Amino acid sequence: MLTQQRRQYILDLLQQEGEVVAKVLAQQWSISEDTIRRDLREMDKQGLLQRVHGGALPRSPALADLTTRSTLCGEEKQLIARHALTLIQPGDMVVLDGGTTTLALCQQIPASLRATFVTHSPPIAMALAQHPLLDVVLLGGRLYRHSMVAVGGMTLETIQQLQPDLYFMGASSINCEQGASTGDPEEALIKRALARQARACWLLASSEKFDTHSPCQILPASQLPDMIVSPQLSVIVRERLQQLGCRVLVAV
Question: Which branch of life, at top level (predicted)?
Answer without folding.
Answer: Bacteria
